[in-house]
Specification:
Layout: E1 3-7, E2 14-18, H1 20-25, H2 29-39, E3 41-44, H3 51-61, E4 64-65, E5 74-76, E6 108-115, E7 124-128, H4 129-134, H5 138-144, E8 148-152, H6 157-160, H7 166-173, E9 177-181, E10 183-185, E11 191-193, E12 199-202, H8 207-221, E13 227-230, E14 237-241, E15 245-249, E16 259-265
Parallel strand pairs: 2-3
Antiparallel strand pairs: 1-2, 3-14, 4-16, 5-16, 6-14, 6-16, 7-13, 7-15, 8-9, 8-12, 10-11
């Protein structure tokens, strides 16, 4: 039964090497959860889980979260022939937190690589929003903690489609809007930034100043010291803490064949 760890970056990401049987047994589940909370991103190089094994492994870590249509595995690809809703994933090319439209966002996502893009690209980047908040001066923290931000799924649309049709816009608007704290005060006592491409404007702030602040915070949170970039190999599994990181895919050709399979853990804490 093997289980070794190695930090990949000082402020984010740890590699775990273990055999399948050990991981599927759940014997190290509490340690994995602890590392996920501490490090934000966990990488299991070329572990090669089947879909069924990925589901079992996910269930060892917490409550399994099915997809909207009830399926357990979600195909992450920009190829609409493989996923009819793939166009929605165009927003995944920009820094974001999953579930900002939900009262309780998912705790974590698990991605396994099945097919690499045939012509490059398609890495995944993560940034530690706990560490980014921690490094602010105390005076700035006090100001940020007072602010609230309106998040909108439709705001992501303008990142990749600056002139959408009214039908497309209305379809995205139906997903909704949600006002959230700029700084998430977690039950653990830790705090993290809640920003990304769904963040539309800071409530009760001049529009220009609001945009400037949100871009400034994104630039800060995605500085090199807070970021880990994963270059995929087939069989890799990566888990990230959705409550304390943002992520994005680097650009790739929708027809390149890139395919990742996702499972999720149910959220355990509302935005606060």
């Amino acid at each position: 039964m093997t289980f070794t760890t190695r930090d990949l970056r000082p402020r984010i990401a740890t590699e775990i090497r273990s055999d399948k049987a050990t991981l599927l047994s759940g014997v190290h589940a509490s340690k994995i959860r602890e590392l996920l909370d501490q490090r934000g991103v966990l990488v299991f190089p070329q572990v090669g889980f089947t879909d069924e094994e990925q589901i079992v492994f996910t269930q060892t870590l917490g409550s399994f979260a099915p997809e909207m249509r009830g399926e357990k595995i979600y195909k992450v690809t920009l190829d609409t022939k493989a996923n009819e809703l793939a166009d929605y994933l165009k927003g995944s090319l920009y820094w974001h937190i999953d579930g900002t439209m939900n009262e309780v966002p998912i705790l974590a996502s698990l991605l396994s690589s099945k097919v690499l893009p045939s012509n490059g690209g398609g890495d995944t980047e993560f940034c530690n929003t706990y560490a980014a908040y921690d490094d602010f001066p105390e005076t700035e923290k006090q100001l940020l903690e007072k602010l609230r931000v309106m998040h909108s799924a439709w705001n992501t649309l303008f990142y990749y489609d600056p002139e959408p049709s009214i039908e497309t816009l209305r379809g995205m608007m139906r997903i909704g809007d949600r006002e959230l704290p700029l700084v998430w005060k977690h039950r653990s006592g830790r705090k993290s930034l809640v920003i990304g491409c769904t963040a539309r404007h800071v409530v009760d702030m001049d529009f220009k100043k609001s945009v400037e602040l949100l871009v400034q915070l994104r630039d800060w949170a995605t500085r090199p010291q807070f970021v880990y970039r994963h270059v995929w190999s087939v069989g890799d599994l990566v888990i990230w803490d959705n409550t304390g990181t943002m992520h994005r895919a680097t650009p790739y050709d929708p027809n390149s064949g890139r395919m990742l399979h996702r499972t999720k853990l149910e959220g355990e804490e509302a935005f606060a």
